[in-house]
Amino acid sequence: PAKDTLDLPGGFVDMFETAEDAVRREVKEETNLDVSAIRYLFTIPNIYPYSGFDVHTVDIFYECTVADFDHALAADDASGIVILQPEEIQAELFGLHSIHKAVEVYCSGYL
């Protein structure tokens, strides 16, 4: 929905799946990277338009560690992968409202 902007790997938690397992699965599906460590950061309420309805959700943000980016590969829902150093991150490059806000919070030194 925010074509030509940056996004973060993410998705929905499957039934009987923990949020942490969903993080590992979504990152693997969307980037081909294996997450070795996960750190919970914060949540942000969101409204997700789905089939003509506004679904109220809570987006959960984690900081993930991977061994390396050698095998990073964009899935079919992305045109590529962009890897930035922390000082290069700019919230305004992220198109989705909750992602933009999360990146602002993350970069503001919240952590």
Highlighted features:
two-stranded antiparallel ribbon, 27% strand, single chain, alpha+beta, 111 residues
Q: Could you explain how this protein is built, in words?
A:
By secondary structure, the protein is α+β, with helices and mostly antiparallel strands. Helix content is 22%, strand content 27%. The chain has two helices and two strands. It has a two-stranded antiparallel sheet with strand order 1-2. Strand 1 and strand 2 form a beta hairpin. The protein is globular. It starts with 18 loop residues before the first helix and ends with a helix. The model has no long low-confidence stretch (mean pLDDT 92).
Quickly describe the structure.
The protein is α+β, with helices and mostly antiparallel strands. The chain has helices spanning 19-31, 97-107; strands at residues 35-50, 53-66.
Net shape? globular
Distance between the termini: 29 Å
The Rg value, from CA coordinates, equals 14 Å
User: Which structural class fits the helix and strand makeup?
Assistant: alpha+beta
- Which sequence of SSEs, written as H and E, runs from N to C? HEEH
If strands are numbered along the chain, what order do they take across the biggest sheet?
A: 1-2
Query: How much of the polypeptide forms β-strand, as a percent range?
Result: 25-35%
Summarize the amount of helix as a percent range.
Answer: 10-25%
- Main pleated-sheet profile: 2 strands, antiparallel
- The low-pLDDT segments are none
Strand element count: 2
